[in-house]
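queue> holo job accepted (thiamine diphosphate)
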Amino acid sequence: MIKEKNERSLPEPRELLEIYRDMFRIREFEESCPKLYSEGKMGGFLHLYSGQEAVGVGVAHAINESDYMVSAYREHGLILAKGARPDKVMAELFGKATGVSRGKGGSMHMFDPDLRFMGGYGIVGGHLPLAVGIGYAIQYREDDEVVVCLFGDGATNQGVFHEAMNMAALYQVPVVFVCENNGYGIGTSVTRASAVEELYKKSCAYETPGVRVDGMDVLAVYDAVRQAVHKARGGKGPTYIEAITYRFRGHSISDPGTYRSEQEKKIWQERDPIPNFAEWLLAQEQARPEDLRLIEEQEKQLIRQAIEFAEKSPEPDLDQLWTDVYVESRG
Ligand SMILES: Cc1ncc(C[n+]2csc(CCOP(=O)(O)OP(=O)(O)O)c2C)c(N)n1
Ligand SMILES: [Mg+2]
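queue> job finished
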């Protein structure tokens, strides 16, 4: 299913630089978190996205602003890729009122309906039916948006994965399922948890095409998602994409990660999607070294400002304790 590079659809040259910027921003953001966490500035869970940037950024560039994204809890990078301001995402991690979820969601429950980023969920696989529901609503209203639903390899072993796949195929809803196969669900490898290692095959029972892509190659992800989105928008139903990737850090901030060998980590570090994409941009003469350096400096500055903003922001007022807890459906 993986296509040769020269058959791929490529973003415009300007967008290629924005793709680099977005991946670099996410890495810079995520790598600033462990120190802040250890200083007690953030609380609760913290699942970092370092290593998986090519998936989220490839997806975000392949869809329109009006399209929806729904995700599990490893979502800081995804909401940033969808266009959230880093200062508001950082403020959310600090539990501040200026955060994307007004400081009440934290790391796992980022939400921004204006950006059409519909969460941020902690129950493994629990958001897949939500994506199908959003897809069903789009279809019912005869709108032309699509939903991209991102989840981990662990979710594919949940019953709810199959229920969502069944309904999506039955109603031919405009949903693109993207499994971020990073090889592990907490400390359990895919080989120990799934009867089928080639996770893209899991949609075949529902006659939904399954595609496997290199999730460390942002352009491969972009290309696969573009095709799937085009199909969904044309009323031809869901696609299921398995992106092979790797998380460079532990499952969460409290995971020492002793279940992965140094050798394994080194192999994947060499496939780091960011320097590899930089190398590609230079080799293809799509960027000059100074273009990339400028982007890197700008993004480092942006994240420094985001931390400052989060530090200076107020905590939510006590009288806000009962707001945003439950939203009644409107018309
Ligand atoms: C239904 C359910 N069962 C168990 C858990 C505990 N849990 C939290 S994360 C996780 C692993 C999920 O791994 P994966 O889907 O591969 O996502 P990743 O963390 O690798 O991004 C588990 C089992 C949970 N949150 N929800
Ligand atoms: Mg996983």
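queue> The chain has one domain: 5-315.
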